[in-house]
Amino acid sequence: MRTMSDLGVPAPASISLMRRYLKHTSLEQREAALRAAGYNHFSFPADLLVLDFLSDSGTTCMTDLQWASLFLGDESYGRNKGYYILQDALRDTFERGDQPLKHINLVRCGETDVERLSNELYLAPHQ
What we know:
- There is one protein chain.
- This protein has one domain (about 20-120).
- By secondary structure, it is mainly α.
- It contains 6 helices and no strands.
């Protein structure tokens, strides 16, 4: 068997340190989200994207320190998870009183049911 040096291929200088699990969304679900967002890139739920061309995160070719920094926040420019958590907290404080919706539980537990997320969070009517 030939080695990497025999083939003239340099040894990898880095490894990918993270894997992001994508939600299984159908074309119809993404089209419904796009219509509900009014075809606005910044209003489209970032969690339903397969490829995010809005953010500047690029590829997984980042250092372990860069990845660690990302865990402190969401780098998406559109409606990232933090947007829904903040919106939910503000509404619980100022609007809903004794009947909070607690959308944070959907985000925190890593809900993967796209229909539930779309109906209760991403595409729910916002006032």
